[in-house]
Amino acid sequence: METGNLILNNISGYIRLDQKDKAFFISLLKPIKLKRRQMLLEEGEICRFSSFVTHGCLRGFSVDENGFEHVLNFAPQNWWIADMYSLITQKPGVLNIEALEDTEILTLSKVSQEKLYLEVPVFERFFRIITENSLVSYQQRLLDNLSLTAEERYVNFCRRYPTLVNGLPSKQIASYIGVTPEFFSKLRHNMLKKIS
Fold first, then answer.
1. What local confidence, expressed as pLDDT, does residue 191 receive?
2. Pairing of strands 80-81, 49-55
3. Is the pLDDT of residue 29 over 70?
4. Is 70 exceeded by the pLDDT of residue 151?
């Protein structure tokens, strides 16, 4: 599927656009290709755009004072990603965003997003909905980390990212659910034994 159609299909689930509005929106997007392990955004930078993944996968993560990585989210094909705190406040961010494989994205700058709101006001509804969904998701994730077992958190990961379950390195999934790679290996092995 052509990248323009992919992003328009994503948006059409939330708002209706005529051909003129679609063309204007597409004209504001900037395509970027990232190599595996290339950084899109680093902690301390100001996030000036939202990114839509057309091919590949990105991960958002932070690094604690001991050098341990904590994966906050993944963005496979057809997902949006940004450092929401930095994008909204225009202050230095805390999130690193990295390509897990060769990845292609379309970026929409904050400046272009504001233009879009003026020219096609219905886009305010679209971005409000995805921002609200993101907020709900982060809150649920925080509550899950406080109250669920590692096995339950893994089951939730599988539900949220079904296309990534078999494609991601175990280390990345372990970091997302908040366990060591060794613990995750045992956990997955025990879960598979229960099924068989």
1. 82
2. antiparallel
3. yes
4. yes
Residue 49 has pLDDT above 90, yes or no: yes
Asked whether 30 and 62 are in contact (CB, 8 A), the reply is no
User: CB under 8 Å to 76, separation ≥6 — which residues?
Assistant: 53, 56, 57, 161, 163, 164
Please check the confidence at residue 134 and state whether its pLDDT lies above 70: yes
103-109 and 69-76: which strand pairing? Answer: unpaired
As a whole number, the mean pLDDT across the chain is 93
CATH top-level class of 3-120 = mainly beta
How far, in Å, CA of 173 to CA of 17, rounded?
Answer: 37
Query: How does DSSP assign 14-46, residue by residue?
Result: T----HHHHHHHHHH-EEEEE-TT-EEE-TTSP
Using left for φ > 0, alpha for ψ between -120 and 50, and beta otherwise, residue 44 falls in: left
User: 46 pLDDT exceeds 60?
Assistant: yes
Closest CA to 20 of 117, 87, 120: 120
Element (H, E) at 182: helix 181-195
Identify the residue whose tokens are 């057809």: 78
Give me the residue spans of the domains in the chain.
3-120
What separation in angstroms does the CA of 194 have from each of 47, 92, 187?
44, 46, 11
Q: What is the mean pLDDT of residues 114-126?
A: 95
